[in-house]
Amino acid sequence: MDESSEVVRQRREKAKALADQGVELYPNDFKVSHSVEDVRKHIGKKDTAADDSTFFAMAGRIVGLRSFGRAAFLHFKDYTGQLQAYVKKDEVGEDAYELFKQVDIGDFIGIKGTIFQTKTGEWTLLAKGICLLCKAVRPLPEKFHGLRDPEKRYRQRYLDLIMNPGVRDIFINRARIIRAFRDYLLEQGFLEVETPMMQPIPGGAEATPFKTFHNALGMELFLRIAPELYLKRLVIGGVDRVFEINRNFRNEGVSSRHNPEFTMLEFYAAYATYDDLMNFTEEMFRFVTQRVFGATHFTYQGMNIDLDGPWRRLTLKEALSDLGGIDSSLFNDRKRLLDFAESKGIHITKKGRRGKILTKLFDVLVEPKLTEPTFITGYPVEISPLARRSSSDPDMTERFELFIGGYEIANGFSELNDPIDQKKRFLDQAKNREEGDEEAHYMDEDYLLALEYGMPPTAGEGIGVDRFVMLLTDAPSIREVILFPLLKNISY
377 and 239: one domain? Predict the structure, then answer.
């Protein structure tokens, strides 16, 4: 028999025996007065190590237990930290102590008492009363080996949070990062909104959507791949500065930097250009990192990254030439580009569009080298169907992508607000779909109708929140910063 199964059997028998004795295994009447953090703050205000008469009512999960017959030391943990407690038969009474002898590591308990310092100087809660709050019938992973397997950690995130304290810190910092983004945008006069997750027509990015069906309306719907077209409708309606922090869904592969469900910050500002947004982004990123971590420089996977500006700016072709080693004479020759890609072992699936070939070469040859913050500009119109054309080169757009630590972090551009040009681009995208490109944009007639009412000159940007959190928490995989990443089903 599996050893863990035997322990589970024994614990279930113990729980049944306690229930037969009239012990309530899952009570809900214990009132907590202080957290571990509260006690730490209280201790920090003390001038001496003298005994303290302050009474505390605390609760948490037992994570360590040493019994000595008529007394025991235990460590319990709540959301704010861990504390030692001393349980003595003479203090809690015979009945309570006999019940306490039946608790196991993993159980939740309530303890009332005062604090003192042991001979080793450790502040400890001296129990005056103790009760069981929740009987755990399954044991925690063995402490020495811990919980290391990434697959199990992601599937059983609750165990991961219990056994690996650093994991909780990642998600606390994630929440603080998102709050800092929100605070910055609100201070800059942006309005936070929510737009539809289910859309009749997916738009705002080149990606394959997830499909669903609404029974009552009898219509097919798509989980959104981006909120862009809805946020721009709001700009048309007079909301000059608008943002949303929410989930996007893209039916794509899973990797260390991709999860089909991910968090995006997207914002739009009327009367701004993509140049304005690059400057704005530098300031916002510095604000967030300074607010959360107290500095604008950090280390990511051994790479030193400094967000102090100004950040480097290169065109796509400059980057391909200077960092990717591609002769500039190849840029306008699709066949020679394909031959070059083949010589480098780079597989190109979308061979019909020169822009797609260039960006694929960029992804493989250049992106991993972009450690320091770098804006890449000069993206072709054919791969930027929602971006404004460049005034100096009509084949290019006023668009940038931001790279830090070898990852794409943000994508922004001056918005296309010419309804005639936008319709032509949608038609080009529709043709690409007919030719088998499942990621091409759909034709959105309602959005075109909205554009005809007039959208002021506008710039917008999307920031991959998960990837930015990866950078600031030194996480090697996007799964480390998403509480419940998508995983393939298994049988239990």
Answer: yes
- Please give the full DSSP string across 25-38, using - where no structure is assigned: SS---PPP---HHH
Peptide bond into 380 cis (omega under 30): no
Residues 176 and 124 placed together within one structural domain of the fold: no
Residue 70 has pLDDT above 80, yes or no: yes
- How large is the average pLDDT for residues 463-470? 98
Token pair for residue 249?
A: 């869904």
Question: Among the residues of 199-329, which ranges form H helices?
Answer: 228-236, 274-293, 316-322
385: left (phi over 0), alpha (psi -120 to 50) or beta: alpha
Residue 489 lies in a domain: no
CA atoms in the 13 A half-sphere facing the CB of 11: 19
CB-side neighbour CA atoms (13 Å) of 328: 7
Alpha carbon distance 230, 79 (integer Å):
39
Question: What letter represents residue 140's amino acid?
Answer: L
Q: Which domain holds residue 43?
A: 3-140
Locate 32 and state its tokens.
Answer: 């907590």
Strand segments, DSSP code E, in 398-446 are 399-404, 407-414
232-260 pLDDT tens trace: 999 999 999 999 999 999 999 899 999 99
- Whether 480 and 471 have beta carbons less than 8 Å apart is answered as no
pLDDT for 145 equals 59
- Is residue 339 situated within a structural domain? no
131 confidence band (pLDDT: 50, 70, 90): very high
pTM of the model: 0.93
How far apart CA 339 and CA 105 sit, in angstroms, is 63
Please report, for residues 305, 387, 406, 474, 483, the alpha-carbon distance to residue 301 in angstroms, rounded to integers and kept in the order given. 10, 34, 11, 6, 21
**Kind of pairing, strands 374-377 and 312-315?**
parallel
A 10 A CB-CB count for 258 gives 14
Nearby residues of 1 by Cβ (< 8 Å), 6 or more positions away: none
Both tokens assigned to 423: 């319709």
